[in-house]
């Protein structure tokens, strides 16, 4: 069976989804179910300190026994904040060490700050974390993050939350060809065809949040994404036909066509 | 009286208290949270024994939706 293996655990789904931006927890749950995703990202934030004691808890909605939860460092702009956030995440999830590292550069683009990402990655790998790392589509950086010991490389397709799709398939292809760990496109996917293209390139998975949560019908889009990732994966495994520019080739027999004499080839 | 900075907010308490007592006062007892005290994680097993002192800075976090 074709499975995605991350940190020695195998997954039948290659679609990873986030839990942000949904209307409520019910919709979050329905979308996750429809997506079939097994790896689910969560964020770590300050709690209210007694103001609203009955606030529902995301961890009750997503029991860690049922999903692989992937705490992220979204919102962190320095290596130090990312490291602290993941220490808290590990404590929150009882020693769970598979995490998503992202260190952002600025609020306008949310582009990764590579220097801080590498600094954090070195510290966290030494501490025993298994890092799935959000990065740019720079193939050299991707390789360096792998060499530091990250368990998955997650280049952006385009800026977080923009839905602009895969802007540089050429770089992604280099990253995929070079990598010995899973490559998962993270950020920028807007619709089903984007996810399929990523998988056809040979990505091992796709991680998305806004493309589903910000769709008019998130649950239906989650279902579409599930199929899109599966379709792209199967097409990749099947091996697409070679392109034959300007060299049309009929699929039906060329001979024995009923036709008047004037249509027959000379 | 002691002052603690909890999630960036200055809070006053009449007497010293343990982490567990603090959580109880904020109705966070038994909730799925994690705590950092002055930059160091406070393991759940130490909530009862760690006593907070004036000026401690605490971060108390939960899991929320994110991507």
Molecular structure report:
- The complex is a heterodimer of chains A (266) and B (67).
- With 266 residues, chain A is α/β, with parallel strands linked by helices.
- Helices cover 36% and strands 16% of the residues of chain A.
- Chain A has a 3-stranded parallel beta sheet with strand order 3-10-9. A 3-stranded parallel beta sheet of chain A has the order 6-7-8.
- Chain A is globular.
- Chain A starts with a strand and ends in a 28-residue tail after the last helix.
- Chain B has 1 helix and 5 strands.
- The model of chain B has no long low-confidence stretch (mean pLDDT 93).
- With 67 residues, chain B is mainly beta.
- Chain B has one helix spanning 19-25, and strands at residues 2-6, 9-13, 34-37, 40-42, 57-65.
- Classes of the chains: A alpha/beta (266), B mainly beta (67).
- The A-B interface holds A 18-22, 28, 41-47, 49-50, 53, 57-60, 69, 71-72, 74, 84, 87-93, 160-161, 207-210 and B 6-9, 11, 25-28, 31-36, 39, 41, 43-44, 59-67.
Strand order of the largest sheet of chain A: 3-10-9
Give the helix level of chain B as a range of percent: 10-25%
Count of alpha and pi helical runs of chain A: 9
Largest sheet: spatial strand order of chain B:
2-1-5-3-4
Order of helices and strands of chain A: EEEHEHEHEHEHEHEHEHH
How many beta strands in the DSSP annotation of chain B? 5
CATH architecture of chain B: Roll
Main sheet characteristics of chain A:
3 strands, parallel
Count of the domains of chain B: 1
């Amino acid at each position: 069976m074709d499975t995605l293996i991350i940190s020695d655990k195998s997954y039948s789904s290659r679609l990873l989804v986030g839990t942000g931006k949904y209307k409520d927890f019910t919709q979050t749950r329905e979308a996750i179910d429809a997506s079939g995703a097994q790896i689910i990202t969560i964020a770590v934030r300050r709690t209210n300190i007694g103001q609203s004691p009955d606030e529902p808890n995301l961890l009750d909605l997503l029991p860690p026994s049922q999903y692989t939860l992937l705490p992220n460092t979204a919102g962190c702009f320095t290596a130090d904040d990312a490291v602290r956030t993941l220490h808290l995440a590990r404590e929150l999830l009882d020693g769970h060490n598979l995490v998503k590292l992202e260190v952002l550069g600025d609020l306008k683009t949310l582009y990764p700050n590579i220097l801080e990402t590498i600094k954090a990655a070195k510290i966290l790998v030494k501490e025993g974390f298994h890092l799935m790392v959000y990065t740019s589509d720079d193939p050299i950086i991707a390789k360096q993050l792998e060499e530091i010991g990250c368990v998955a490389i997650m280049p952006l397709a385009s800026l977080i939350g923009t839905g602009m799709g895969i802007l540089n398939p050429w770089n992604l292809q280099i990253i995929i060809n070079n990598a010995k760990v899973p490559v998962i496109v993270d950020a920028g996917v807007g619709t089903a065809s984007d996810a399929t293209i990523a998988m056809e390139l040979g990505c091992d998975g796709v991680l998305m949040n806004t493309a589903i949560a910000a769709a008019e019908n998130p649950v239906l889009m989650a279902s579409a994404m599930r199929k899109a990732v599966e379709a792209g994966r199967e097409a990749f495994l099947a091996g697409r036909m070679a392109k034959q520019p300007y060299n049309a080739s009929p699929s039906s027999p060329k001979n024995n066509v009923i036709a008047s004499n004037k249509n027959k080839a000379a | 009286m002691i002052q603690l900075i909890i999630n960036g907010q200055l809070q006053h308490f009449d007497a010293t208290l343990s982490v567990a007592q603090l959580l109880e006062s904020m109705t966070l007892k038994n909730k799925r949270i994690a705590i950092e005290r002055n930059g160091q994680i406070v393991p759940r097993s130490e909530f009862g024994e760690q006593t907070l002192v004036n000026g401690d800075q605490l971060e108390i976090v939960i899991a929320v939706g994110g991507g």
